[in-house]
Amino acid sequence: METWAVASICVLLGLTARWTVSLNSYSGASKAPMFGDYEAQRHWQEVTFNLPVRQWYFNTTDNDLKYWGLDYPPLTAFHSLLCAHIANLINPDWIELHKSRGYESPAHKFFMRATEMSDKLHLPAHNINPFLHFFFQSSALLCILLYPGLILIDNGHFQYNSVSLGLALWGVLGLGCGHDLLGSLAFTLALSYKQMELYHALPFFWYLLGKCGKLGLTGKGLILLVKISLTVLVSFALCWLPFLFDPQQTLQVIHRLFPMARGLFEDKVANVWCSLNILVKIKTLLSVDTQIYLSFGTTLLAVLPSSIKLLMKPTFWQFRLALMNSSLAFFLFSFQVHEKSILLAIWRGLTFRNTLFIFLQFALSVLTMAGLSFMSAALEPPAKLPDLFPVLVSACACVHFLGFLLYFNLVQLTESPRSDKKKIN
Amino acid sequence: MAAPRDGTLSWFLALTLGVSLIKFLLIKAYHSTDFEVHRNWLAITHSLPVSKWYFEETSEWTLDYPPFFAWFEYGLSHIAKYFDEEMLVVQNLTYASPATILFQRLSVIFTDLVFVYAVCFSSCVKYRVCFVTMLSLKAYFVPSFVLAVLLLWNFGLLIVDHIHFQYNGFLFGVFLLSVARHFQGRHLEGAFLFAVLLNLKHIYLYIAPAYGIYLLRSFCLIQDNSDGSLKWRNFSFIRLAALGIIVCSVFALSFGPFLALDQLPQVLSRLFPFKRGLCHAYWAPNFWALYNAADKALSVLGIKLKLLDVAKLPKASMTGGLVQEFQHSVLPSVSPLITLICTLISVSPALFSIWHRPCGARGFLRCCVICALGSFLFGWHVHEKAILMAILPLSILAVESKDDAGVFLILATTGHLSLFPLLFTTPEFPIKILLMLLFTLYSFTSLKRLFRPECCLINTVESVYLSGLIPLEIFCELIYPLTSWQQTFPFIPLLLTSVYCAFGIIYSFFRLYGILLRGPRYTTKRKSH
Asked: Which residues does UniProt assign to the signal peptide (chain A) (predicted)?
């Protein structure tokens, strides 16, 4: 069967799975007064449509930042504005300033789900290597398209992660095909959509820098470096344009993007700090500033080996491994991580296959998770430890992720300088 | 018949799990009044004694399936009580708690396992499967794989059973098993299964003539003359008696209790409610849809040309939501008897054909499809869902012969599109489009690949017709609702869909007849890989 038919069928399956999941309820449905992520997205459409740009990120009488204030970079805001214009054509009540808070209706749900579906930017980015075996192609494609984590969070819970992940994937593909400028542009856009993409930023930087270095920093390499820098700077400038005129605006946006006051972590997340907190209450022992420095330092240390290796050997395979390592390191050690950020690491991981280690880990993970899930459902936690099961799950997951971090670092670092094996894509 | 080896069943498992995933995801989708129908039957069979089952009238959705199905609902009701006992109270009309929905949906998904088993049997056992590993390209283009997908992932079955809500999956499973038995030469078992099927859902009477003639000709007549003609001396009365005993005992088991209670007339009147109109509220795309449309068109034309008097025309609308008897305005009215005669005339040539020139089990299956289609086209109060009775068995023939594949593509695409009006809610709109695209894309590409050395399966005219379905759908679902006519003439999209699809289905009917009457030597077989 033609490759395009296989790809189309996989894409259709992915879309069908997504839309059927979106039949269900969304985050915060009917849960006044704050509702959930769905209401946050609707509120951003309300804010961006009705208020001038300079007020979007500021606390004003019309814009209460405590009620789902904008905390993503400008591209998200512009995207919300676009959706708002469409919403306004269909039913202005959906985005009426102040009055539309908590607006819920079947028609509105359909509209929001439709905006979610139309942002499937990553779908065409899954190029199929024509030299790869039919079975691997279709199974790989299905793995990525049917990845439950992304489907549940985007189409169930309600978020727009597909946009930034898609753009980041275009970035990776661009670099893989040798289109460095286009790849950089795509990644810059991804970064301007969600700041979570910073998890992937370092590998992009080191890879491109290393590549320029290999080409010769005095000749072609320098030209490439200049071109890439210009591309990145100009695209950033374009995305952030309205906020660059006033330093206060820029600072406020950055302040919203990186809420340092919220502490090392919130709720239960499967990273090192939350797991460590079970034994040593670092969140209360250390001041916020110390926490920031601690997490900054450990994150840098964690990405250092893979970054150095990538800089010295900027091949595409190294780049992909570094992406994995970087996202895992950031997830495990950085500040204010949300559990959904693991999507970034897993997304990367989906593109790797055929390692026995991963299979064993997977089997172990499934068994552990199954056991824990069963316990969570069947047993009651003791009264003194009401969050016992979520915490155990997080801690278990954290151990797994640490294992993966070690493994992928080993794979990346031990790749001998002369080996140029063709790895399965 | 080669038995399947374990290695080749892993792809089957993957297909089954995949489609089951979709089924589970559809639990929250829209369900029609058929949901309430089955809830009501659960309640009736659980709460009331057998003597009251066919008399109960609290709900408008009275029990109108044969007794075996009633017993099936009775069995289900014993599991239902663990989900939500309130659903088993007859007075709780339109009761649809989350537990009720979950139970009912799960019951369809799990009874579908019968269908899954039947498909596995039909696709893996019936075909000599090429024992290549999963990694080989060849594994995906053997008939068994294609057939398994066409059956398990059939669009019509998915949306009718798992969205609209019905139990067709396991019924088709029983039917497929019966057919498979006939292919294997185990005719008594096949007859038994069909008798059970008839007592589960009497719509399968549509294909009973095919069974009757085939069994008489190919089972009871042991041997033919050397020139293939009948040899009455070889008529086995023993076999006929065996068949008779099997069929009669099944019917006795089913209707016996009601016969004893002297309720047979009541049961039969419930099973065959001829008071309902010629067409369902939404016209099935059959011959009568064209007849009605022509009648309407002529009456409108007649009024415009002042040939008819508006006052003298009957007032009843056949396009309204209620099903009631009505009169045609210009063309002669149609009674149930006329539809029966038309149906018998339409299927007789096929029955004669397998009598005079039996083509084995394959000919029998083709005759089943023709009987199903004939009854669909000319029957009384046909539901559009009945098209599945023709599409599913035709899948088996489609993977074996190029001509059948061509007819299948036309019939399946048209038939499936005619099911679109069943799902009229907004959230389900993308689902039906996506699933339809999925199935249609797969069926076209896989069948083309199966018969690759040959030229195209469908010709230009047929392609144009099928392509016309797209603008039709866009107009009916997207453009028309935005116009002002939606309020005054809401039935126009249904009428257009019905009439357009009717042409495709009637054409498929004649094409199938052509293949049957031309005989096996003209059927282009697929080149074996």
From this structure: 1-22
